[in-house]
Amino acid sequence: MSCIELVRHAYMIVTMTTDSIDKIIAGWSRRRPDLDAGHLDVVGRIVRLSVHMRSAIEPALEEQGFNWELFDLLLTIYRREADDSIGVRPTDLYAECLLSSGGLTARLRRAEQDGFIVRRQDPEDGRGARITLTAKGRNSVDKAIAQHFRLSRSVDEILTANERQTLTRLLRKLLMSVEKPDL
Question: What distance in Å separates the CA atoms of residue 6 and residue 33, rounded to the nearest whole number?
């Protein structure tokens, strides 16, 4: 057993708490002891929390007629509309939604067909488009976002204020290491 594995094992014994990621890491240690699965301590938990959050919010999204991917797009438009009353440019959505041009086009088409958005000619650039939420889109986002925020808050309520600040600082550091600086 390596030093890292020994410390991790001792920590789990002392705290007597394990989660699904601890079990996955232990499984990798047994299956491939030559590989260091320690990155799963952080990355695995981030991914696992994301999956749990997404699964918890999806029923509320379905009530409003959209899935997680469409919700992400509509939330971005909703938030960006506060900064630009004539609508959001598609190019402004690429980075925030982490989509390719084709992926964004398909998602916009679905949102438009479902009556959540309207695309209009850009008054500042006749070749471009501006996207705004319809009343249906805005109402649906308003309902879903309240539930989403409640669920998200219920997950991080387990943390103290100091723990939340520390975790925020560390997650920001990780995110900034992989994101482009213009976001």
Answer: 13
Spatial contact of 88 and 130, defined as CB atoms under 8 Å apart: yes
Query: What is the Cα–Cα distance from 26 to 32, expressed in whole angstroms?
Result: 10
Alpha-carbon distances of 78 from 44, 81, 118, 161, 177, rounded to whole Å: 30, 5, 13, 29, 27
For 88, which DSSP code? B
Sign of the torsion formed by the C-alpha atoms of 143, 90, 129 and 124: positive
Quote the tokens at residue 3. Answer: 């030093």
d(CA 43, CA 11): 19
CA 181 to chain centre: 18
- For residue 136, count other CB atoms closer than 10 A to its CB: 14
Helix, strand or coil for residue 97? helix
CATH class, range 55-183:
mainly alpha
Tens digits of residue pLDDT in 6-58: 556 655 555 557 899 999 999 999 999 999 999 999 999 999 999 998 888 88
Integer Cα distance of 17 and 149 in angstroms = 28
Please report, for the chain, the start and end positions of each structural domain, with discontinuous segments joined by +: 1-41, 55-183
pTM, to two decimals: 0.76
Residues 6+ apart with CB under 8 A from 133: 74, 77, 78, 81, 116, 117, 118, 141
